């Protein structure tokens, strides 16, 4: 299968590497605004050819849009304008309601599959791409009834070759769940980094003392605003809802400490411990 | 060297394994209130002998106290009562001001070294002990001037054999830094787990969708209250100080989203990104 990757960064690059090594994809056209990324991706064997959008799409069975969610919403209609009924387009964005709304009335809507692989790291760019990355993780297809059966089949095959398990969901539910499971983690991590940077002026001490616990909690704070501002923007209502709940949960810890109510503190911690039973299933 | 480990859990057990494999320690007496832990530790080769406190201490050059910080404060004076000038006692607790105050006027104070290895996981018990755990991490000795030179030498040798690098600090500074670097991470992680458990009633969805980002941010929420309530209690003022700052940082994200001020949101994220430069030094 010949494919086009629009956006040869962490996600697009990792998908290309994995799908090539799995033998499903024989040739990858790379399209990106960032010429350095294109050259890097070519040198790393992620893509086979640097191409214009029109040329790439015209020769591809499948087009994967792997750019920030605001840019993906902008480019998707133009990509659908370029394809025929034998071609399929998928995205990989972390918000889904906005993008399915954008093309709801597009004549080629049925050739688009709204997709979200639940994997990422705090890094970006083709150099961060890892072939084994998606293995064992979940991937979501949203609003499957709005896509053609054969387009869904292709994306299901892609999922299988990424070694991911597939979940079907409507776009609104997806965006609520990702606010809980992914987006809020980034905000707490950013806020934690800003807290430490604000309070702890001795950078050398942070570096020396930073324990494994701190590093893992604050890891996501390294994630770039180019990717995350558009996600928060598109999922604003859900993210605010969860953020308000999170602040109110933190206030319970604050109140337990202020009132020296250590039984309440223990109850709060025991409740949080339940996450072990859920995550370690 | 023959040593006693009081508390054969994650930290005590990991230290015993590492120090034995490094060849520094030849024999380990295990003391613990939890008889199952003692049996497990014996079966796992972490300790050589299950013993009473008195018997163990009488035959040990070094006593390592590796129990929750409130229990450590209680037991330390009795251990110092049992030793002579050729024996050394160290703790491994995550708060240091309380414990050094407890023994400030003890006649054997100089045989005690206040120690904190900056490593841990969300797990507990001897089964979680890992020999390689401490490698490359920082360890802190507090108030070195209150300990005898030869007692310090022994703990420095222990640190070297754990493959850790040593930092000296006074106990008050240590407790301020650990509030920033370790204790607040646990509170945010607990609060995040409680947020998700409160908002996301569909446990199956959490399990299926939980991405690597979520798992790493919420990992610390699995940590037990038996260890953490005493830490928050002993470091209450510093933890509250950092927690207030953290809530105010989260409010900035909330405000930026509510006002749709995406330039501010980007600034907040760019500032948080600076943690990369510090952590990846």
TrEMBL record, chains A, B:
Q: Known SUPFAM superfamilies for this protein? A: 6-phosphogluconate dehydrogenase C-terminal domain-like, NAD(P)-binding Rossmann-fold domains
Q: Which residues are listed as membrane-spanning?
A: none
Signal peptide residue numbers:
none
Top-tier EC class: oxidoreductase
Q: What is its EC number?
A: 1.3.1.12
Residues forming the Prephenate/arogenate dehydrogenase domain are 1-281
Q: Which InterPro entries match?
A: 6-PGluconate_DH-like_C_sf, NAD(P)-bd_dom_sf, PDH_C, PDH_N, Preph/Arog_dehydrog, Prephen_DH
> What GO terms in the biological process aspect are recorded for it?
tyrosine biosynthetic process
Pfam families noted in UniProt? PDH_C (PF20463), PDH_N (PF02153)
Keywords, alphabetical: Oxidoreductase
A GO molecular-function annotation: NAD+ binding
Write down the PANTHER family for this protein, in alphabetical order: PREPHENATE DEHYDROGENASE, PREPHENATE DEHYDROGENASE [NADP(+)]
Q: What is this protein called?
A: Prephenate dehydrogenase
Task: Look up and give the organism this protein is from.
Answer: Chryseobacterium manosquense
Instruction: Show the taxonomic lineage.
Output: Bacteria, Pseudomonadati, Bacteroidota, Flavobacteriia, Flavobacteriales
């Amino acid at each position: 299968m010949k494919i086009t990757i629009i956006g040869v960064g962490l996600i697009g690059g990792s998908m290309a590497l994995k799908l090539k090594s799995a033998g499903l994809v024989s040739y990858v056209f790379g399209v990106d605004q960032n010429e350095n990324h294109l050259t890097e991706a070519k040198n790393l064997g992620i893509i086979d050819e640097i191409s214009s959008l029109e040329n790439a799409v015209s020769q591809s069975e499948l087009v994967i849009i792997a750019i920030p969610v605001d840019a993906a919403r902008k480019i998707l209609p133009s990509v659908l304008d370029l394809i025929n009924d034998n071609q399929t387009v998928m995205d990989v964005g972390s918000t889904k309601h906005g993008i399915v709304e954008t093309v709801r009335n597009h004549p080629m809507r049925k050739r688009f599959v709204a997709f979200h692989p639940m994997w990422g790291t705090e890094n970006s760019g083709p150099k961060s791409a890892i072939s084994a990355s998606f293995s064992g993780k979940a991937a979501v297809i949203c609003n499957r009834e709005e896509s053609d059966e054969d387009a869904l089949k292709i994306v299901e095959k892609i999922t299988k070759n990424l070694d991911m398990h597939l979940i079907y969901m409507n776009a609104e539910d997806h965006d609520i769940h990702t606010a809980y499971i992914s987006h809020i983690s980034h905000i707490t991590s950013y806020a934690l980094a800003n807290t430490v940077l604000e309070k702890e002026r001795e950078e050398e001490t942070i570096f020396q003392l930073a324990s494994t616990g701190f590093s893992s909690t604050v890891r996501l704070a390294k994630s770039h605003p180019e990717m995350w501002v558009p996600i928060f923007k598109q999922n604003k209502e859900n993210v605010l809802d969860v953020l308000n709940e999170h602040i109110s949960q933190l206030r319970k810890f604050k109140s337990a400490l202020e009132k020296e109510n250590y039984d309440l503190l223990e109850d709060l911690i025991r409740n949080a411990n339940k996450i072990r039973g859920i995550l370690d299933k």
